[in-house]
């Protein structure tokens, strides 16, 4: 029996992974509607697309009105772009948690979020600690299925300029073949491959609960 078409929600739809997610979801016949949360108008016009204007400050208030089957969260920034650790935490912790709570309350089938390699609430690195705290607290919500994606350095064209990441990307392309065994999880990966992996995971049969995708598992899933 064919599955019923679903509704997807994408938070962070103008970022590297989020924009790839949006394009892939709009082309995917398994989804009849795609809700994109965006701070500014999108260049894409599509009959399946419903764009909701949202600012980072208005997101918590808007969250209770949102409903979808599969919630994709690709929100993320850097401390340099955010300006302060507090502002960074708002984007990478507060807003994903607000969305996760509403996803759980609204009866979502699953929540899928881009985290980062090394995420741990016990990490001494602020960035990794915040990512880990977000994972931990999302895991405590009543979500039927939580999918955590932990890429290393993301490759691809970003809307905002991140010169440091661009230089690291060039370096990592050369280092990737040398990262084998337990070091394989640190290989850089294309943002579009992460987006592909997220959609694959959302539509693959799997047990309920928390699922972590990193390293080879993430790369293999995104190799479509």
TrEMBL record:
**Signal peptide from the UniProt entry:** none
Please indicate which superkingdom the organism of origin belongs to: Bacteria
InterPro entries membership: NAD(P)-bd_dom_sf
| Coiled-coil boundaries | none
- Cross-referenced PANTHER family, in alphabetical order? OXIDOREDUCTASE HTATIP2
Per its record, how is this protein called by name? Oxidoreductase
Q: Which organism is it from?
A: Cohnella silvisoli
């Amino acid at each position: 029996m064919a599955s019923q078409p679903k509704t997807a929600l994408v938070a962070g739809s103008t970022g590297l992974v989020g924009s790839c997610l949006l394009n892939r979801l709009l082309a995917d016949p398994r989804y009849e509607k795609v809700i994109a949360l965006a701070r500014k108008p999108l260049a894409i016009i599509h009959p399946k697309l419903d764009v909701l204007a949202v600012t980072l400050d208005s997101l918590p208030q808007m969250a209770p009105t949102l409903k979808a089957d599969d919630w994709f969260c690709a929100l993320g920034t850097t401390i340099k772009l955010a300006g302060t650790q507090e502002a960074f935490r708002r984007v990478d912790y507060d807003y994903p948690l607000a969305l996760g709570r509403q996803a759980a309350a609204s009866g979502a089938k699953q929540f899928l979020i881009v985290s980062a390699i090394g995420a741990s609430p016990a990490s001494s690195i602020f960035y990794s600690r915040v990512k880990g705290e977000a994972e931990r607290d999302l895991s405590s919500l009543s979500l039927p299925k939580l999918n955590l994606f932990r890429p290393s350095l993301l490759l691809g064209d970003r809307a905002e300029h991140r010169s440091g990441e661009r230089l690291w990307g060039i370096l990592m392309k050369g280092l990737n073949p040398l990262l084998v065994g337990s070091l394989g999880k640190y290989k850089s990966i294309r943002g579009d491959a992460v987006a592909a992996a997220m959609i694959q995971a959302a539509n693959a049969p799997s047990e309920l609960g928390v699922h972590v995708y990193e390293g080879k598992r993430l790369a293999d899933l995104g190799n479509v």
